[in-house]
Write a structure and sequence with these properties.
homodimer, about 350 residues, alpha+beta, Arc Repressor Mutant, subunit A, Beta-Lactamase, Enolase-like, domain 1, 3 domains, three-stranded antiparallel beta sheet, 12 helices, about 20% strand, elongated, DNA-binding
Chain lengths: ~350, ~350
DNA sequence: TGTTAGCACTCTATCAGTTCGAGTGCTAAG
DNA sequence: CTTAGCACTCGAACTGATAGAGTGCTAACA
């Protein structure tokens, strides 16, 4: 449908606009190296590209900017990935150099570095915590009516929840309970915990412990909602750096969406494998219609999966981000798998 | 120095500007109920107030706005506290109604509600975590080379840190270590933990455990920095709602300062008792010269102390915020003391 | 002597008109 | 098919001109 020359012009136009954030004119294009035609020829081609919907004008006598369709075509067909610059690699590797052992810490730091490197906002989704497996359960009494339940998982993640206990419960009963729980629940995945708790331990507890009912109920309650979410943001404020976002109202909406983790499912294509690009209105949320989101999944071991995303303006440096995310994804997969599986 | 009438005019001027965010003119003031003088008289008085530095003009023929000194005087002498509206009280009380047992959770929620109620940003500082007292220590092995250390404090706070252990360390040694640690360190405050660890347990550990050196070092390392901070923000984005902040650059600086907890000591007068108001340039940070910060301290039990702060534009609704903070402070003190001391 | 009506003056915000330049589309010649 | 040339369009930036809000001052009044 498009000639070689039109493809070239489209590519250079998008590249230039990504760089300058200004509508691109025919004269400007004619000056570029590799452009061996006159501005008039380019004008004709631009008109054709506009006719086919790849480019737009902001007003009748302005230069062209890429349309939604134009970006999409650019991303799908014109993107030649770049090797990641040495300098970026050095920075990214620094995450692992400090011998941090916690998955969470590593992901958090990666989010920070990614946002610094790109000047966009990064969102990192850790592995689904509910798949983690219980390694140890313990209950520590705090005061006569209160105790804290602690669950350690195989990934080193620690969940804890304060809950109330019958004030006159004696220590040996608590110890008994902990023993029973550990005996029965180690090796169970967190998302099964609630069910298994009931199936496996209720009868046993009833047998051994006075007042099991009250205790059991509040304990179960405490375990019900693992409210720790595993979303990490880097550089939320970078949005403010982008000249594309000058309207305070827009910024507000955008930050609102990102503030809480609530909209994650709408922002990120969860469960998708490999690299995904959502441009402008391809995003589910209206507040993000001027943004593009590039996501890539990464693996930990064989089953666990996480997601890395970069959110920026539609006029995003797709080439750079794509290569960067490719790199980070495989890097993170490698390092976390090593850590997770205990070498 | 100022006559009754001047005081009245100053007060009404500041009140009006706080409400409207527009320079206040003499005609406007003359229309207010309680103003029984003509605009000409008011003009004379305004000129006098300006002469004494309580008011300013944005340009020669504009209305007046309060100066730094004007706000200060208003806050110090003209503020008649309001009772907190019933409606606000209902909302605030809702924090405690859901029977949450964790100090942290309560503080976090309070931050959220305060920001919703005021449309400003709230910052809540929890009690100093380093004063909390160790209730239980435990170490859970994760994989051959890795373990997680868990510290539970009397407030129900749980600190955990993953650290590496010699891969061939046997389980009984770990158990021995945990026993020794618990025996010696329960009852120690977190800020003493590092020191006491060395003083009290090093010798004992050396005696009982092979390879204590390696183990001890990484364990100590893990406990070194309790990196959980106890700062909670509510409504960071509310800044964007205030018409006073239209300059994106200013907003950036401001959010930058608040993003990380690093600047807390400069933003809040830590250690100060009771209610404090910092207006505009009274703030330590240049980025906050257009903001006012109202803080109030609250107590938990007899020793612990926390801080509640509201950050808004200089043109802040001082009266409302002051009453609100007074209320919240005593409320939080009461409820947390009850919780903290186990009823 | 304090208050107020009246008026000239000042400054901003706004709007229309103008110019400049970047960019386009079209035509005609190469 | 390409390109030079040219008329045309539109936004951005500047210029007055005007209206309106507000001030300061003066003179009259209670």
């Amino acid at each position: 449908m498009l000639t070689e020359r039109q493809l070239l012009i489209l590519k250079v136009t998008v590249d230039d606009y990504i760089q300058s954030a200004q509508p691109v004119g025919s004269n400007q294009l004619a000056k570029k190296p590799g452009m061996s035609f006159s501005s008039a020829t380019i004008r004709n081609e631009l008109a054709e590209l506009e006719g086919q919907g790849y480019l737009e004008k902001t007003h009748t006598s302005s230069g062209r900017i890429p349309s939604q369709k134009g970006y999409r075509y650019y991303v799908d067909h014109l993107l030649t990935p770049n090797p990641v610059p040495e300098n970026d690699i050095v920075q990214l590797r620094s995450v692992f150099e400090e011998k941090v052992n916690e998955t969470e810490e590593i992901i958090k730091r990666s989010a920070g570095i990614l946002s610094e490197l790109t000047n966009y906002t990064s969102i990192l989704l850790g592995p689904d915590i509910r798949k983690h497996i219980v390694k140890k359960l313990s209950i520590v009494p705090l005061s006569p009516g209160m105790a804290v339940a602690i669950i350690v998982t195989d990934s080193g993640h620690v969940e804890n929840r304060v809950f109330s206990i019958p004030p006159d419960l004696n220590a040996s009963d608590i110890e008994k309970m902990v023993n029973i729980l550990n005996e029965r629940l180690i090796g169970v995945a967190l998302h099964d915990l609630h069910k298994r708790l009931e199936q496996e331990t209720l009868a046993l507890l009833r047998q051994h412990i006075e007042r099991y009912g009250e205790l059991f109920r509040t304990f179960q309650q405490a375990l019900l909602l693992p409210h720790t979410d595993n979303v990490y943001y880097g550089g939320k404020l970078n949005i403010l750096k982008q000249p594309d976002f000058h309207d305070i109202q827009k910024i507000r909406e955008l930050m609102d969406v990102m503030e809480e983790g609530k909209h994650i499912p709408e922002i990120l294509p969860i469960g998708a494998q490999g690299l995904q690009i959502r441009i402008g209105s391809e995003n589910a949320l209206a507040a993000m219609e001027d943004c593009s989101v590039i996501t890539v999944s990464y693996d930990i071991g064989d089953e666990q999966m996480g997601t890395i995303a970069i959110v920026g303006p539609k006029r995003m440096d797709y080439r750079r981000i794509v290569s960067l995310l490719d790199y980070v994804s495989s890097d993170l997969s490698k390092e976390l798998t090593r850590l997770f599986q205990g070498k």
